[in-house]
Bidirectional sugar transporter SWEET
Amino acid sequence: MVSPDTIRTVIGVIGNGTALVLVLSPVPTFYRIWKKKTVEQYSAVPYLATLLNCMMWVLYGFPAVHPHSMLVITINGTGMVIELTYIALFLAYSVGAARRRVLIILAAEVAFVAAVAALVLNLAHTHDRRSMVVGILGVLFGIGMYAAPLSVMKMVIQTKSVEYMPLFLSLASLVNGICWTAYALIKFDLYITIPNGLGVMFAIGQVVLYAIYYKSTQQILEARKRKADHIPMNEVVVDGKNANTAGSGAANGHY
């Protein structure tokens, strides 16, 4: 018979894979930034928020805080490296106040996590107390990260279009949330259960919205395509003249 520890490990490995997919999802955005050499109107806030969340969970999985949590460390450690890469690209292609703001927030996050680590390791003398303090902070930051899609869901309802809410990412979020919720429930871990349970709820909401607004999205996209393909005749240019002028000339025997 397969032991609960083995099942938990397998689920955790799957969760690492789905979480990696989510962390890598902004790659096309940063490829565009790298190609254009500018951050345009993109915000660094989501990446800074995810970095803070990853740092907090790496601390949570640290053996001195919460033993036997290596899978928590591996995915969040990987997430830290990836998010730092995104932020480095953002800093490389931003200027002035935007760059300074990112640097200040980044420095504040690192200082905050370092301070939490120092205080927890020195003032809390048991694993339970250390896990509780870091876990509560992890839950707060995790809820903030998982709640981010609510703004996208609001836009979907307002526009009746899922164009900017890819189904693949919604499904990946759902599978990821289910994996980590199951991982937390096998050996009950309240601090991992809460944010990932909420993540499952938000992801189900996205999938439901996708099912509701898929047809209307296709209609909107088709209408947009027809509009783009339709060029009014009075705007067509023929040899430096618009169609109306050319037609008049032809009618009068002039070319």
Notes: Residues 4-230 form one domain. Confidence is low (pLDDT under 50) at residues 236-255.
